[in-house]
């Protein structure tokens, strides 16, 4: 971190939504409601899985862990963003900016790794049902979860160290609502900035595409197996166990591809800020809705728990 010590910048200014002064209160109320809904939705999923013994299976263990990573990811970014929407002071210290980047990338990549693990779980359950209890034993599940968190932490550390090893010699205005890589790279100076930008971009895209390809490969085998099931009811039952996960994967990678593969231009600063909302606010908002509505077992368990609270004498 020698480059960071030579930096002339001791703090950054998060421009965020200050380019939309008349909409800041609207944005605050909208994002606050979406954040609270996302938080309550994920907590409800976790509480349901914890309370319902029939959901104590690997698939729902991974879903519970996914909810934890999503809650932590949103807490890394959204509270600060909401505070800035109501404040006139948008400064963030050098250390706080580095910490925010580390935790956002750690939890973000952990989320991607867990989605990949969930795809593997569905592959084993449908393509190798007789070996499921062996391949997805408690020990194996714990290892998969641990490796997902470890992988996310490594990615967070690699990206953060690469960016904050650079020299920031001013200006210090970050055209985003959190410490994200592209706007920070525009503030860095030195001959190694283009190489760091290409290296970080290559590592992130390679890891995300690797996760995406593994999920696609899992579903290729899953679809092939489902099509060989003779009854329509059996095919529908098998596919219904994958529907919620597949929908979340499509939403997750659709927004990620739009954000990372869209063309960059000097006029795209406001567009980058608005697009950042899709993967920091919108995706976490949609995930618990999708899992709650498209997962039949989870939906039945939620209804059962709610009814037991409202009508305890009938349960």
TrEMBL record:
Residues 41-291 form the G-protein coupled receptors family 1 profile domain. The chain crosses the membrane at residues 25-47, 59-78, 98-120, 141-168, 200-227, 239-261, 273-293. The keyword Membrane applies. InterPro entries: GPCR_Rhodpsn (IPR000276), GPCR_Rhodpsn_7TM (IPR017452), Olfact_rcpt (IPR000725). It is a multi-pass membrane protein. Keywords: Cell membrane, G-protein coupled receptor, Membrane, Olfaction, Receptor, Sensory transduction, Transducer, Transmembrane, Transmembrane helix. Putative odorant or sperm cell receptor. This is Olfactory receptor 10H1-like. The gene is LOC139077937.
